Structures are given as C-alpha cells and as structure tokens.
C-alpha cells in the first residue's frame, strides 16, 4: 500500500515473539529531515520508522537533535526539507495540535502544562468536553464534573497516588507531579503514537518506574511509542529498538539484544561506529 520504502530493519536481534510487530507497515515514518538554525545544523537528513506495538527509544548527547527530531515530526517545528508519513500517507503538521488531532500525543521536554489551571483542565486542554444535551450543544457549557472524574481516573491509572485533588492548580504541584500530569494526558489521549521527551527526568524513583510501566502497557496495547531518555537502564529495560542520534544525524539503530549499554553509549559518543 505504501509508496515509502521501508528503512532496512535487522530482525536478527529482535526476539521471536516480537517479530510480528515488524511485519506490518510502520505507523510513522520520517525521511530525510533537515533543519538548520542559522549555522547550527539541527538535523542533517534524519530517517525514522516507528511500528505499532514497539517502544523506539531515541538516545544521544545534549544537542544531538533528539528534541528537534520529534518537534519536526509533531508539528512544533517545520523542517527545511524532508517528509513525514502517518499510516503511509504524507502529513505536514503546522502545529502540535494538528498532530494531536491525527492521534499523536507528545510530551515535550519543556512542559506544556498551564500552571494556573487545575489538573483536570490541563488534562483536557484544547479538547474540553461539553455537557450532554442542549446545555453542551447550545449553551456550550463544559462538562467540568465529568472531566474532573475522568482526569482522576487517568491519573489513578498511571498510579500517581501523590496527587489527591484534581481541582488543585498545577502551579502548586511539584515538578515531578507536573510531569506526571503531562504523561497521564498523553497516555489518556494518544490513539496512535505517544512521544515522550525525557518523561522521567524530574521524577522520583517510584514515579519513574510507574511511567516506564505505563509506557510498556501502552506499547502492549498496540500503540507506538517514541521515548527520548538519557537514562540508559530505562532505555535498555523498556525499548524494543534504539535510535542513536549524534551531531544532528542518526548514528544507527540498535536493539537492547544486539548491543549492551556500554556499546550503545560508545556509538552515541562517537567512540565506536556502527557497521551494519
Ligand atoms: N529553536 C532553536 N533555535 C536555535 N537552535 C536550536 C533551536 N532548537 C534546537 N536548536 C539547536 O539544535 C541542536 C539540537 O538541539 P536539541 O534540543 O534537539 O538537542 P537534544 O538532543 O534534545 O539535547 P538534550 O539532550 O540536551 O535535550 C542544538 O545545537 C540546539 O541548540
Ligand atoms: Mg532535548
């Protein structure tokens, strides 16, 4: 069905039980993404294929282009050139809201929560639900009670027990709790793809573990996840494949089975090159 040629994929190191994931066409593809900022090369022609039911980790040093890559894919940046395909069809998102409407939820590294709003309102930002019947359709009244209840369920599902009151303003939450709200939002609404840029950077050990569990649950339910992280043990625990970003380019794609953490970091820093 697709006119895009798939990127070469070595399934040698993909466990037997996961191979079916790679029989299907990629849900999301990026080809030759290029973006420059003045003289800084953000991306120098990056390719990516993401499959349903996989966690694709993206690792790389500071400034390697990880955030830029996902921003170009999700409409936060417009690449100078290159193409993005969702379900085999070309897309060009002008803003993150467009990607969201197409089923791609992103938690950006710089958090997209509005501090003065409460948790429930943040979860439903830009997708507020109206009251049933004429109160909603004619008077445009928001279903605040329903949103609060469903927000509570989303947060509970993620296992964030430290958040007790959904009516609490996000500005009164701790940094980690704010991050958890953003992740809960993505998990609750991502229908095809969930992109998480450093979702556990501000989280404590227990909360990080919960986010990782949630990532695996979303993956097992058939969603495709892009997980950017500097935490190598997390990456090696949760990822099916690992895209290594280096100096604006992709230095290779490995799996936790094909390379150990030390080897992955060596490729990331340029101490070793991937010969494939
Ligand atoms: N809006 C921008 N204007 C100018 N330069 C930018 C902009 N966005 C990104 N860059 C540059 O592009 C390069 C890649 O940045 P990016 O944020 O993608 O790195 P990263 O891999 O996410 O790093 P980190 O691990 O620190 O989050 C950097 O040199 C950065 O300064
Ligand atoms: Mg970044």
UniProtKB/TrEMBL annotation:
* Gene3D superfamilies in UniProt: P-loop containing nucleotide triphosphate hydrolases
At the top level, the lineage of the source is Bacteria
Q: Which residues form the ABC transporter domain?
A: 28-272
Q: Name one GO molecular function term.
A: ATP binding
Xref: InterPro entries: AAA+_ATPase, ABC_carbohydrate_import_ATPase, ABC_transporter-like_ATP-bd, ABC_transporter-like_CS, P-loop_NTPase
* UniProt keyword terms in alphabetical order: ATP-binding, Nucleotide-binding
Q: Say if the entry is tagged with keyword ATP-binding.
A: yes
This chain belongs to which protein, by name?
A: ATP-binding cassette domain-containing protein
